[in-house]
Amino acid sequence: MPNLGDIFPNFECTSTRGTLRCHDYIGDGWALFLSHPGDFTPVCTSELGTLAARYDEFEKRNCKIICLSCDPVDRHLEWEKDVMAQAGLDGDELPFPIIADEKRELSVRLGILDDDFKDGFGIPLSARGTFLIDPDRHIKFIATYPGPLGRTCDELLRIIDGLQLIEYRRVCIPMDWQYGQEVMTRPDVTPEEFGTVYPKGVSVQEMPSGKEYMYFTPQPEL
After folding, report:
1. Where do the Thioredoxin domain residues begin and end (predicted)?
2. Are strands 30-35 and 63-69 parallel, antiparallel or unpaired?
């Protein structure tokens, strides 16, 4: 299973868009790789429908989406119509590809099989694996959700925003942060550098210990 900071595998596979070469498809932007247990299931349909309805928000962040399940391509193509209809969208095709990982080769490689969810033959299905990949193909975020628990689109967008700010603006993201709120300075940026790195200014929260380390700055633009 890959870890944070690793290069995301450059696989070639079959998808609803034909042969998909992972790194070529990602191009020079970010990518969100999402696996799901199975087509024609309620939670998966709600997830992909929401992603399709809000796909423009991912495009604004220069982030493509790639999905995967262990179903074959013809089943994906049939299911796409239901997903689009459930989301109230026109058309029969999702704005992102779905990989057909029938042999579980990619799911095993990524460590996303779920022993609690199996097909009719008793073979594990893919869990809700979540990987955010940067333009250099490094993995910046990993999470695995169990089959019955759907992900939150707002949180996926928050993760992308936060990690892009970390990557490009040398900040840290506090708990419960939302876009537009204050961020924190990075520990590897010294107070002498604050004026250059954080041109909007820096404030410090006084602590009982007397130590100065809770530094805040207005969120920079991306």
Report:
1. 2-165
2. parallel
Q: Domain 12-150's class?
A: alpha beta
Joined together, the tokens standing for residue 196 give 């250059």
Residue 90 is classified by DSSP as: S
> How many other CB atoms are found less than 10 A from the CB of residue 221?
8
Give buried/exposed letters for 36-68 (b at 16+ CB in 10 A, else e): bbbbebebbbebbbbbbbebeebeeeebbbbbb
pLDDT in tens, 184-221: 999 999 999 999 999 999 999 999 999 999 999 999 99
The contacts of residue 199 (CB under 8 Å, 6+ apart) are none
pLDDT, tens only, 85-112:
999 999 999 999 999 999 999 999 999 9
- 21: amino acid identity, one letter: R
Give CA separation, 191 vs 45, 194, 206, 214, in Å: 49, 5, 15, 12
- φ/ψ of 99, rounded to 5, equals -80, 140
Which of 13, 22, 44, 70 is an active site residue? 44
Q: What is the DSSP letter of 15?
A: E
Residue 144 forms beta bridges with which residues? 129
Cα separation of 152 and 50, whole Å? 9
Task: Decide if 44 is catalytic.
Answer: yes
pTM of this structure: 0.95
For the record, the structure tokens of 99 come out as 């990989």
For domain 170-217, give the CATH number. Answer: 3.30.1020.10
